[in-house]
Write a structure and sequence with these properties.
The complex is a heterodimer of chains A (452) and B (141). By secondary structure, chain A is an all-alpha fold. Chain A contains 17 helices and 2 strands. In chain B, strand 1 and strand 2 form a beta hairpin.
């Protein structure tokens, strides 16, 4: 890596870190729906590969750190991954000490990230010899992966039943667009990511289902009072955790850094339970499990991003078919057919260095921010950033990118996929991960079944 | 005052009327920025390759979507009520502990052998006394 590339990577990491330090504060923002479009954007704008990866890593790590703020201070999950942490953080919040929950969580996260990164890259290098086999069998592997991820989703058999229709649906649209000389894989992709929002809009518009979403009035939030229990700007995470918590957090991060096919939420719940059974005392149980659970999600994120990317170049993890999906599919830069993605343009060493850069930059931005400004920042977001504004921005973002790829029909296709994918997700538990994997499997699968 | 309709969309409460305006603003501003941006860039730099021209257009479109967020944020205030300071009702901590099913006798016993750092932390947070046997006895009297 020459100096020019290092500057690119550093700048991109700072950009990702700043944008997603802010995004993490907005409670309930889904990782896939927010990180994927922005990553796609910088790929399409022509950022060099090292910058793309540093941006992505910094985005993931910083969003994960600041999402602990709404979780701890208000008892609303920062994103879907924060749901398992709610019980413990609520217990501490109700005792009037939410800031200790926040401190334990983000100290766990930073430790988890630092441990998981070398573990994931190391493990991925061990798997590289299997990479060629995996590439040769990419099509069938996607089909099997789609079936597995479908069965492990909330939809179970409904997800499996929906695989073929959804694949036919997507390939049908791809072929329709091809008739008009348009490529639409970004549109499909954006449609899947934004689906949950469309499902809510459709649900609201129908008088039959409207009542599910109606609420009496504005939502109330209780923001805990300010408290600062340390001196300085960048408190040492190893001192905020007790030696015992450091030990458990390290073990959990080590193990989760190796896993790349398990469900991140499942891993988090398991790690939390494991700590609770080994710890006595109310305070120790809750603070310990918060640190370990947040480190586990962080480490799983990193493992799930790096292992399939470095070892196979195939999107074979929930992360790779979620927030990291643009790293595999962002035509014309990265394509599924022929297989060409970040894996093919970066070396293992670059993945490690850029990953490290992303983690460090995100920590420098998000960690002291969360430690020092948590309360003030949540207040600003609650008071001045309306949900209407957020939706306005994402609607604009998605529309422009869809239009950029395929013109007006691109917008129509993104909307179509969003309506149907969103409904499958909201009412039948066929989540966006299943839908992305079906998309990857559909090209080979439809050809194998029907010959074209 | 007209009647307002609130609904939970994408994880937070919105005023439906505001939301529909916000969506229209997002669509119109962003797409206009993109299309006009493409034209302007093309007339300023006619030699630019088509893909680069589109990439710059995209960048302008994104500026448009950020702008629509700013406009919507200015026009439509969040539908949230924030309680803090005096409005922040502190629950009775003992009631909370009871509610969470905490056995205070056992907790006090465990704290006798707890890590000094844990005890220091709890003291600093002002919750150490909650868990010690002395207060437990006091409450029972």
């Amino acid at each position: 890596m020459d100096l020019n590339m290092i500057v690119w990577a550093f700048g991109a990491a700072a950009l990702g870190g700043i944008i997603f330090t802010f995004m993490g504060l907005i409670s309930g923002t889904d990782e896939t729906a927010t990180i994927a479009p922005f990553t796609l954007l910088i790929i399409l704008l022509g950022f060099p590969p090292v910058a793309i990866f540093s941006f992505f890593m910094a985005a993931v790590v910083s969003k994960h750190m600041t999402h602990a703020i709404p979780t701890a201070l208000m008892g609303v999950p920062g994103d879907t991954m924060a749901v398992p942490l709610l019980d413990d953080s609520n217990a501490l919040r109700r005792l009037g000490v939410p800031h200790i929950a926040l401190r334990k969580m983000i100290s766990g996260a930073i430790l988890g990230a630092v441990i998981a990164l070398p573990i994931s890259v190391g493990f991925a290098t061990l798997l590289v010899p299997f990479g060629d086999v995996a590439k040769a069998w990419a099509g069938p592997i996607f089909v099997v992966a789609a079936i597995i991820i479908a069965y492990t989703s909330k939809g179970k058999w409904a997800s499996i039943l929906a695989l073929l229709p959804f694949a036919v649906f997507m390939q049908g649209m791809i072929k329709m667009a091809a008739a008009g000389n348009q490529k639409i894989s970004i549109c499909i992709f954006l449609g899947i990511a934004i689906g949950p929002m469309f499902a809510d809009l459709v649900t609201y518009l129908s008088p039959k289902t409207r009542n599910n979403l109606l609420v009496k009035g504005p939502r109330e939030f209780w923001l805990a009072p300010e408290m600062k229990g340390w001196k300085g700007w960048f408190p040492n995470p190893l001192k905020i955790l007790t030696p015992r918590q450091v030990k458990y957090t390290s073990i959990a991060s080590f193990i989760s850094g190796l896993t790349f096919t398990f469900s991140p939420v499942g891993m988090t719940v398991m790690a939390g339970e494991a700590v609770k059974t080994r710890t006595a005392g109310f305070y120790q149980k809750h603070t310990g499990s918060l640190a370990v659970m947040n480190a586990t999600t962080e480490a799983t994120y990193i493992g799930e991003t790096l292992i399939p990317l470095v070892a196979f170049g195939l999107p074979l993890s929930p992360m790779a078919v979620g927030p990291a999906a643009p790293l595999y599919n962002a035509p014309p830069v990265f394509t599924v057919e022929p297989l060409h993605n970040l894996h093919h343009v970066m070396s293992t060493g670059q993945f490690f260095l850029c990953g490290l850069l992303g983690v460090i930059v995100a920590s420098i931005i998000a960690y002291p921010f969360a430690m020092n400004y948590a309360r003030r920042a949540s207040m600003m977001v609650l008071k001045y950033v309306s949900q209407e504004a957020i939706i306005s921005m994402f609607v604009g973002l998605i529309t422009v990118i869809a239009y950029y790829e395929a013109g007006a029909i691109g917008i129509a296709i993104a909307g179509t996929i969003a309506v149907f994918g969103g409904i499958l997700n909201k009412y039948f538990g066929i989540h966006t991960g299943v839908q992305f994997m079906t998309f990857y499997a559909s090209a080979w699968g439809i050809k194998a079944l029907f010959g074209f | 005052m007209q009647k307002r309709t609130y609904a939970e969309i994408w994880g937070d409460v919105v005023d439906i009327k505001h939301l529909s305006y916000a969506i229209i603003i997002g669509l119109v501003v962003s797409v206009t920025f993109y299309i006009v941006g493409l034209k302007i860039i093309h007339s300023v730099m006619p030699d630019l390759s088509e893909s680069l021209n589109k990439a710059y257009g995209l960048l302008i479109g994104i500026v448009g979507s950020l702008l629509s967020a700013v406009i919507s944020a200015k026009l439509f205030k969040p539908q949230r009520i924030v309680n803090e300071g005096e409005g922040y009702v502190e629950e009775d901590r003992y009631a909370v502990l009871k509610d969470l099913g905490v056995d205070l006798k056992k907790e006090a016993e465990l704290l006798k052998t707890a890590d000094p750092q844990v005890i220091a932390e709890m003291k600093e947070l002002g919750i150490y006394d909650l868990f010690t046997e002395k207060t437990e006895q006091k409450r029972q009297v």
